[in-house]
Specification:
This protein is an all-alpha fold. The protein is 80% helix and 0% strand.
Amino acid sequence: MAAAIGLGTAIVALTLYGVQALMAGAPASDVPVVSGPAPLLLLSGTLAALGVSAAVTWHRLRPVDSYYRRGGLALVSAFGTFVMAVLATPLHHFFGPEALLAVAAGTGGVGFVLLRDRR
């Protein structure tokens, strides 16, 4: 599950970085942006991260015979990814966009290392 959450968090951090890059040249406004590529990237990237996290957990729990347990833990991984996304969002505000890239590199690296370890 930790590998799945790490990979999902990396995808979310890269999504947030992409949204920030798209919005960098936009003028300041009090109205939320609801059209264009930025909201679409945010929605699709977040859903993709949740789906990847759930799918990796489901796949790694193949030895568990109970679909109920596998599905429940896959949903827990997706929720964990969402929580990590919420925690990663303020990093841009306090440390800049480089912090999102650092989070993506760190969590993605940890996720791949944990996936590689098959014990």
